[in-house]
Design goal:
This protein is α/β, with parallel strands linked by helices and 245 residues long. It contains ten helices and six strands, in the order βαβαβαβααααβαβαα. The protein has one domain (4-243): Alpha/Beta hydrolase fold, catalytic domain (Rossmann fold, 3-Layer(aba) Sandwich), CATH 3.40.50.1820.
Length: 245
């Protein structure tokens, strides 16, 4: 049976994806990406790049896999599918992009992420509170104070040195943009975005135009982390996409 590999977003870990891993079927491999979770964490800075993580994820399995990725994990999953399409049977992306093409935008994003990395090293708690206050995640308030407290504790459990190293290396401003490679993703692809996440709804539409077998799925009552706010709807899309493989 084909394994499903599930990849979390920045500051998350494998456990942060349990709302969908608990609902998926078959073998599930929820991965702690480099710099996240309990470790041990790589000493080599190159291991934290999007390309290196994509290779490491696929290297965990001798057979082709279904990939599911959220945000940063979605960029890892998309990179894996574009670079090694024969190793990916289906691809489900939640709030993910193909990177940035514009040189100025890339430089600005890299500089912004470097500043955040410095904050992680100097004040992890302050960074986490600032990160969770980002308007991108505002709709998660629907999940209640208990959920938010648990999510905050999980983020604070990350090693600040490893997390900062991750942010610098896998910044959207530093990853190799994938726009010219999207045509290689011939497997069934689901591009999932919460209806309240207007930016990533537009990104999903643009990606679908460049991918041979992609479909856009806008999830009502959800923001950027649609898998947290509407897990049943997201899993229905993932399973349908895997069924087309």
């Amino acid at each position: 049976m084909t394994p499903t590999v599930v990849l979390h977003g920045f500051t998350g870990d494998a456990g942060a994806m349990k709302r969908i891993t608990a609902r998926l079927t078959g073998p599930i491999d929820a991965v702690d990406l480099a710099g996240h979770g309990p470790g041990p964490h790589p000493n080599d800075a190159a291991a934290y790049s999007i390309d290196a993580m994509a290779e490491a994820v696929l290297g965990r399995h001798a057979q082709p896999v279904h990939l599911v990725g959220y945000s940063m994990g979605g960029r890892v999953a998309l990179t894996a599918a574009c670079r090694y399409p024969r190793q990916v049977r289906s691809l489900s992306l939640i709030g993910a992009s193909a990177g940035l093409i514009d040189t100025e935008a890339r430089a600005a994003r890299a500089a912004s992420d470097d500043a955040l990395a410095a904050q992680i090293l100097s004040d992890l708690e302050g960074f986490v509170d600032q990160w969770m206050a980002n308007p991108l995640f505002a709709t998660q308030a629907r999940l209640g104070d208990g959920f938010l407290a648990a999510a905050r504790a999980q983020r604070l459990g990350n090693d600040p040195v490893a997390l900062a190293r991750s942010l610098r290396a896998n910044s959207t401003g530093r990853m190799r943009p994938l726009h010219r490679d999207l045509g290689a993703c011939t497997m069934p692809v689901a591009l999932i975005a919460g209806a309240d996440d207007i930016k990533f709804v537009a990104i999903a539409s643009d990606l679908a135009d460049a991918m041979p077998a992609a479909s856009v799925h806008v999830i009502d009552g959800a923001g950027h982390a649609a898998h947290l706010e509407q897990p049943d709807a997201v899993v229905d899309v993932i399973l349908a996409t895997q069924g087309r493989a």
